Amino acid sequence: MNLTKRSWLMWIVALAILAVATDVWACPGCKEAIEGNNGQGDVVSGYMYSILFMMAMPFTLLASFVTYMYFQVRKARAVAAVAPIQVIPGLE
User: Fold this and answer.
1) CA 43 to CA 39: how far, in whole Å?
2) Residue 82: what pLDDT?
3) What per-residue confidence (pLDDT) applies to 6?
4) Of 28, 32, 54, 92, which has fewest CB within 10 angstroms of its CB?
């Protein structure tokens, strides 16, 4: 599939999604807070929870990356302990 066909396909898919999508009224936390009490919900708590979730996301990503790197280093050290690096003669 060449680039022009792919770009046309992407445009068609994007337009189909826009045609089918419903109106976005607010973030999910605020929307649920307003819908909870017939339009008179606690919007402040909706904002509070959305801010907490947005603040937690960078820390979650950072913790995931650090955990992944920690296990990769442990794996590399275990492999190095089992099979030590061989020195090629003449390149010492």
Assistant:
1) 10
2) 79
3) 78
4) 92
Give residues with Cβ within 8 angstroms of 60, minimum separation 6: none
Task: Give the 3-state secondary structure of residue 39.
Answer: coil
DSSP code of 37? T
The type of residue at 63 is: A
What count of Cα atoms within 13 Å lies in the side-chain half-sphere of residue 67? 6
pTM: 0.46
Amino acid 4: pLDDT: 81
Query: What's the confidence (pLDDT) of residue 19?
Result: 79
CA distance 36 to 43: 10
> What gap in Å lies between CA 52 and CA 88, rounded to an integer?
55
User: Cβ-count burial of 33 within 10 angstroms (0-12 exposed, 13-18 middle, 19+ buried)?
Assistant: buried
Cα distance between residue 9 and residue 11, in whole Å: 5
